[in-house]
Amino acid sequence: MITVLRTRTIAPGKVTDAVAWAHEMAAYFEKKFGCPNRVSMPVGGHPHRIRWTVEVAGFAELGEMLKKMQGDAHYAQMVAQASELFMAGAVDDEIWQAV
What we know:
By secondary structure, the protein is an alpha+beta fold. The protein is 40% helix and 33% strand.
């Protein structure tokens, strides 16, 4: 099992819009790429962060998902349109493997 985590820092004053967009992106992602995912925010610590969590069976499935994402123009357009919702460069990606 591979878990992919993407965390973004939300721009000042954009929490409501960023949360709405995050759920819109999660729904599109699940429909288009077939990967259920969840959106979450921290309860403690730095509160202006949002995270998407996706689980796939293995590295082959992860590779296929990434390949589909790179070729999806609508996905790229959605990401570009949301640029004002997040702090530039404030993205953290992690890939974890179950042991």
